Amino acid sequence: MSKLIHVNELFSSIQGEGLLAGRRQIFVRLSECNLDCRYCDTEFSVSGIGRIESCPGSGELVETPQPMPLEALTTVIADWTARLPGAHHSVSITGGEPLLQADLLRELLPEIRSIIPIHLETNGTMHLSLRQLKQHLDYISMDMKLPSTAGCTEQLWDIHGSFLREAQGRTVSVKVVVGDATTPDEISQVCEIISTVNRETPLFLQPLTLPDGTVGIWVPHLLHLQELAASRLPDVRVIPQMHRLLGAL
User: Fold this and answer.
1) Tens digit of pLDDT for each residue in 25-70?
2) From CA 206, how far away is CA 236, in angstroms rounded?
3) CATH tag for 4-246 (out of 3.40.640.10, 3.20.20.70, 1.10.10.60, 3.40.350.10)
């Protein structure tokens, strides 16, 4: 019998964040997360119902019983890729925190990767799970969680450093969500970790998006943080959540 995986959402849209911003992807949003970030706008609890787009790009999400067989998920991805040849750059495995399901992904990812490249979006806290899967990944987009915006009670700097070291050998980028409360010391810490591992790693400063859709950082403060990071690293970019601006899934 096929193994089963909980999928919260499966849809086709434009990547709005990080290195692949502007690329069209098939998004596989998995359930569960090991963190509870203050700004998170994603429902990641395990449910008996997921939402799958009726056809890629329609925006119509249909409730579907969960969990679903791994083979069924692969079949949808293969169908969408064949139906729209060349439209999708890659599959984005996201969450929640997808590495919580590393055992299932170890079986799923080779099948998907035989069809289309794989992009992992992760909170950058589970380096041992990443070790199981790294060979099946093409892109890794890791978050570094800042206390000022994520509100995490635990300092995650050392954990993020271990994750970034483990991610080497893939196309890796780092994203941090910044807001009015973000401090220069936090950005300096991010830059220190990246510089220690690989200073060529692109760093994306993502302005905090507030619940009403507005940006939660004063532009002069954002530019000051960018100046600080750019003085330490060669590739620093500021990109808001483009999919939110487009009103896309």
Assistant:
1) 999 999 888 887 777 766 667 789 999 999 999 999 999 999 999 9
2) 11
3) 3.20.20.70
